[in-house]
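Example 9 (inverse folding). The structure is encoded as follows.
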């Protein structure tokens, strides 16, 4: 086995891993999980605004 064959096998393995990751990332089963993760930053804003409204009602 020469170095060219080893590089070819390595390239094919990496390509198969890449295709596997792409299929996993774009599968319909993962979509709800990724959408929830994408909206996590907005959950903090909702909590902050709810806390601010609660503080304002206490002051009044």
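The amino acid assigned to each position is listed next.
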């Amino acid at each position: 086995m020469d170095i060219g064959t080893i590089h070819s096998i390595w390239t094919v393995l990496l390509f198969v891993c890449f295709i596997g990751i792409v299929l996993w990332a774009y599968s319909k089963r993962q979509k709800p999980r990724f959408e929830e993760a994408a909206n996590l930053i907005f959950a903090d804003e909702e909590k902050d605004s709810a806390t601010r409204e609660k503080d304002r009602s206490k002051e009044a």
